[in-house]
Amino acid sequence: MNPTLDVIEKRSSVRAYSSQPLTQEERDAILHAAFRAPTSGAMMLYSIIEVDDQAIKDRLAETCPQQPFIAKAPYLLLFLADYQRWMDIYTYSGVEARCRELGLPFRTPQAGDLMLACCDALIAAQTAVIAAESMGIGSCYIGDILKQYKVHQQLFTLPRYVLPITLVCFGRPASPNAPRNPMPRFDRRFIAHTDRYRRIAQEEVGEMFQLFEEQSASHWQLSNDAENFGQENYLPRFGSDFMIEMNRSVNEMLKNWS
Predict the structure, then answer these.
(1) N or C of the chain: less Cβ packing under 10 Å?
(2) What's the whole-model pTM score?
(3) Tens of pLDDT along the chain (258 residues)?
(4) Got the DSSP string for 126-164?
(5) How many Cα atoms are found within 13 Å in the side-chain-facing hemisphere of 52?
(6) Are 37 and 193 in contact (CB under 8 A)?
């Protein structure tokens, strides 16, 4: 296995960090890696906010609840889907007036544009994560940033066509010699298809979760209310108040965008 594949294989989320700060060179390397990520049409439809203000970190630990380690992360990056930069460029370049001269419609960003910008932001984030891991710097994605859109919009002064997509914590593991136990993944036959999509059969569900069931450290453990892993996923996750609130917030983001 080559070094890059080894880094990917061993990477797992880190939520406890050493107090040692990242050097400026390390920060620059992580950002540079993000900038080199693939991007739609070389447009770089994303922006990144380095969150250094401790007061903002503390606030994020509140708005992304039950994750106090956010406030202690030595390095925090907020990845944003960003079409505002190009809309401003179009304005400065007189695009709307030129469209009128040419008899062409002038449009604003729609759902397809947002999807491309989300892809750009997430690809940049994952490239940064792998770069950090290669330097011995751990990371953890914070999906909760999608909640409380209005709060985060005001906190970071986000204009109309800029939406928070993911927050990533970076830092050296507090226990660097502790074993890393990456979460298991579904077997490739359930995820990778050839030529056409194949829906899972009912009798395959038990096979899918067998590896998770065998690992006692897995967070896929049945609670008292769940009789199987499908119920375990739905009850505390998909059907939870947390996801209802996240969907409300994301719907507000989409409405503001379009």
Answers:
(1) N
(2) 0.93
(3) 799 999 999 999 999 999 999 999 999 999 999 999 999 999 999 999 999 999 999 999 999 988 999 999 999 999 999 999 999 999 999 999 999 999 999 999 999 999 999 999 999 999 999 999 999 999 999 999 999 999 999 999 999 999 999 999 999 999 887 777 778 889 999 999 999 999 999 999 989 888 777 765 555 667 778 888 888 888 888 989 989 999 999 999 999 998
(4) HHHHHHHHHTT-EEEEEGGGGSSHHHHHHHTT--TTEEE
(5) 5
(6) no
Q: Which two tokens stand for residue 136?
A: 């011995």
* Half-sphere CA count of 216, side-chain side, radius 13 A: 0
Place of tokens 């739609």: 40
CATH code assigned to 3-183: 3.40.109.10
Instruction: Please tell me the distance from the alpha carbon of residue 180 to that of residue 67, in angstroms, as a whole number.
Output: 20
* 9-12: Cβ within 8 A, 24+ apart: 9/182, 10/133, 10/180, 10/182, 11/129, 11/130, 11/133, 11/180, 11/182, 12/180, 12/181, 12/182, 12/183
Long-range (24+ apart) CB contacts under 8 A made by 180-183 are 180/10, 180/11, 180/12, 181/12, 181/217, 182/9, 182/10, 182/11, 182/12, 183/12, 183/218, 183/219
Domain ranges (residues) in the chain: 3-183, 184-258
> Read out DSSP for 235-248?
IIIITSHHHHHHHH
Count H helices and E strands in the chain, helices first. 13, 4
